[in-house]
Design goal:
The chain is of the alpha/beta class. A five-stranded mixed β-sheet has the order 4-5-6-8-10, with helices on both faces. Helix 1 packs across helix 2, helix 2 crosses helix 3 and helix 4 packs across helix 12. It is globular, with a radius of gyration of 21 Å. The two termini are 33 Å apart.
């Protein structure tokens, strides 16, 4: 499935041979049918040229997939959808909080918490019986930017201060954990330090089997930014209202009407949202 004579340009500027297998794997993860995958790859290859950017390939494939399947298209563009949970990063914090809720945690977002030494701003505190997690959310608008060792060191020191205060207040029966959730990736030394120190790390594709994309697939909690039936301005307005999940739109039709949505547009948005949610739930 490779075409060694055709070069594509990665985001870093590096030119590599086009690998249709990688495109096929991404389409498969989105839930596209095998016949759809073969047809999309065929159409993409017919429109390619030497030096084409991987971003352009992604856009072409998404445009074709969108015509075939709303739910698969929403899943395929998930990485871009996560990047749109900005620019402030607060919607990303709320989204991470929702992911913890999907795993049965009670969640509070955007807290001031007193440590043993100083007070800390904590993005997410997630609690289960016998477990409490301090979560720092690192949102980068540039997909090439990594959270480095300094981030891991800083978050671990904050967690140690909070853990000491929590243990003094609540005793040692609760298991306390620190975690960093990043929408891009971590540097190698950040991952090495975190593994040694016991700091949890979750990024777009780390750790294997439990990454951010795995977590989203497991939960079925897709962000509203996955929906192509919403304009960028509309997505931002919904995020500012605190609506971050596709599954929340059904119960917030009042706000959609307030935004000026007509019945036809409202129907299209809700249909796409239901399609994405239902596909994840296997309905």
């Amino acid at each position: 499935m490779n075409n060694p004579t055709l070069k594509v340009t990665k985001g870093s500027g590096e030119k590599v041979a086009f690998d249709a297998g990688k495109l096929g794997a991404a389409l498969k993860r989105s839930g596209a049918h095998p016949n759809e995958i073969s047809e999309i790859i065929r159409q993409v290859e017919s429109m390619m040229y030497d030096g084409i950017s991987t971003k352009k390939i992604y856009q072409i494939a998404y445009r074709i997939l969108r015509k075939k399947s709303h739910h698969a298209a929403g899943r395929y563009r998930l990485k871009k959808a996560i990047m749109e949970l900005g620019p402030t990063g607060y919607p990303f914090e709320k989204f991470v909080g929702r992911l913890f809720e999907s795993d049965g945690y009670q969640v509070r977002v955007g807290l001031l918490v007193q440590g043993k030494c100083v007070q800390h701003e904590v993005d997410v505190v997630a609690i289960k019986p016998g477990e409490q997690v301090m979560v720092e959310c690192k949102f980068h608008s540039d997909s090439r930017r990594k959270s480095d060792l300094k981030v891991a060191l800083y978050i671990q020191s904050r967690f140690v201060d909070l853990k000491t205060a929590w243990e003094l207040s609540n005793g040692n029966e609760t298991q306390y954990r620190g975690m960093v959730v990043c929408n891009t990736r971590f540097s190698d030394d950040a991952m090495q330090f975190a593994k040694c120190a016991g700091l949890g790390l979750v990024s777009w594709d780390y750790p294997a089997g439990n990454s951010l994309k795995d977590w989203i697939d497991r939960s079925g909690y897709h962000p509203i930014t996955s929906l192509h039936s919403l304009k960028k301005r509309e997505k931002q307005e919904l995020l500012e209202e605190g609506i971050v999940l596709c599954r929340e739109l059904q119960s917030r039709q009042d706000f959609l009407h307030k935004m000026g949505f007509g019945e036809r547009q409202l129907s299209a948005v809700l249909k796409e949202a239901r399609s994405l949610v239902a596909a994840q739930e296997g309905l």
